[in-house]
Amino acid sequence: CVGLTGAFSQLGFLVGLERLMLALVDEPGRVHAALRLRQALALREAEEICGAGARFIWIGEGMASGSLISPAAYREFVLPYERELAGRIRELGALSILHVCGNTTPMLGEIAETGADGCDVDSPTDWAAAVEILGKSMCLKGNVNPLLFLRENLGRLRAACAEARRV
Prior knowledge:
Structural class: alpha/beta
């Protein structure tokens, strides 16, 4: 499993998160133009990774977090590019695992439309909702608070994992 950064997060790293957030409102056409350029790089990277033999590609879209953008913004500025990337990865014979940081509960329906084969669900997301909405179309991983992996919290980790499995 090899990771790559999705177009939206690539753009955020390139121009800065604050500038990207403002541009979503003030310059949506320019954002889409820049996303198309970043998408070309993501697609080429996926081709190189798959050509080297990777069977799974983890797509990082941390800046598309529901903690930062609305479901409507996700639908407009992230979903079309993720759908294309996941589709291309599948055409290349690999599977995709999408990770969007933060609370993605409000945009689970949109994430389900990406066509990704799996989703790495971050701990602030409602796990039961993720299982209900995403579990129909993709494999799910996650939702245990990463702070529980700290040495001082390990006693609570087993119970949290068991609870996630019960859902």
